[in-house]
Amino acid sequence: xxxxxxxxxxxxxxxxxxxxxxxxxxxxxxxxxxxxxxxxxxxxxxxxxxxxxxxxxxxxxxxxxxxxxxxxxxxxxxxxxxxxxxxxxxxxxxxxxxxxxxxxxxxxxxxxxxxxxxxxxxxxxxxxxxxxxxxxxxxxxxxxxxxxxxxxxxxxxxxxxxxxxxxxxxxxxxxxxxxxxxxxxxxxxxxxxxxxxxxxxxxxxxxxxxxxxxxxxxxxxxxxxxxxxxxxxxxxxxxxxxxxxxxxxxxxxxxxxxxxxxxxxxxxxxxxxxxxxxxxxxxxxxxxxxxxxxxxxxxxxxxxxxxxxxxxxxxxxxxxxxxxxxxxxxxxxxxxxxxxxxxxxxxxxxxxxxxxxxxxxxxxxxxxxxxxxxxxxxxxxxxxxxxxxxxxxxxxxxxxxxxxxxxxxxxxxxxxxxxxxxx
Length: 423
What we know:
Blueprint: E1 8-13, H1 27-34, E2 40-45, E3 48-50, H2 54-57, E4 68-71, E5 74-77, E6 80-82, H3 92-110, E7 115-119, H4 121-135, E8 139-143, H5 147-150, H6 157-166, E9 169-172, H7 175-183, E10 191-193, H8 208-215, E11 223-227, H9 236-246, E12 254-258, H10 268-278, E13 284-288, H11 295-301, E14 304-307, H12 316-323, E15 328-331, H13 336-339, E16 346-349, H14 354-365, H15 371-376, H16 383-399
Parallel strand pairs: 1-2, 1-7, 2-5, 3-6, 7-8, 8-9, 9-10, 11-12, 11-14, 12-13, 14-15, 15-16
Antiparallel strand pairs: 4-5
Helix pairs in contact: 1-16, 3-4, 4-6, 8-11, 9-10, 9-14
């Protein structure tokens, strides 16, 4: 049995991690890793998918990455694995394991990792579980949201079940994902809800007028903001429709869209054309991707943060908006219902269509908001707090594997992630 005082060597295994070509890619994985307390040492293996004709099919989807790099002081390796398109994606987990195995064998000779910390159940989690069984290393798998879609696919669901039933621990960023893990065969005593966190020092309330002047946005009139990848899932098209519907009532209404293309889609041009058809081009700013350190000014400039998404785990952008004192109007997916459980933090969209989004935004614009009360909803949810909870599970699989995970949700009535109550 391992002593709790021994340092823990962690291998973070994920295809989603910031890199030189994609500095915002998987930033939540990097932040959670940074939140681990002293006594943990980590290396990262972030495999890169490869297909011989990928550059012709989707030139921007798979940027060229170095075999090794250092990201914020963390050594990261990028072994290549074959990723087949369309139906071949159902082989990603096995192919990922085969592609990453040589890198893990080499790494283990100089860094004898004790536990594998895998993010997303598929393909990363499946590959990690296969590799863990080969190497005799326990695996902790974190579910982040895409599993809800994959569980409905005939070829992926059995692979998810295999992964979750064999992981030493399952961490879910929402109660909904924890319930899915149990449904797919994860022993309930091995499942724990650990939501994402936020950096309250970086994301904090700023003077709204000053933020608008800095960004070149008129100081008059209400401003809406969405931050995220420009994919259909995020619902920016619905927000555009809502802006068009609400413009006669709020003549100064403007909508800021921060984000760009990603693996889930690249709808930038389509959304611009939609804004033109709706006659709201002058009201909409497509700002493109922005650095993490730039985002507080965008949150600070907005009266409301809008996220009409149809699928989320624990969206960092909602946590960031709340930490900046910006109330949120969003659909009730993932952890959003818990985050907006008190109406003083925001408004849940009742129906995910243009009319539902417009109604939610209108209800929020008609109210006055206490920015410090909004911030209070997430003030205690720092990445350091998240790191402590994750550390408990990483140590537990080494010191007492039979012990149940902390804060195990009760089946049928899953517990919500811990959040500081509003004053």
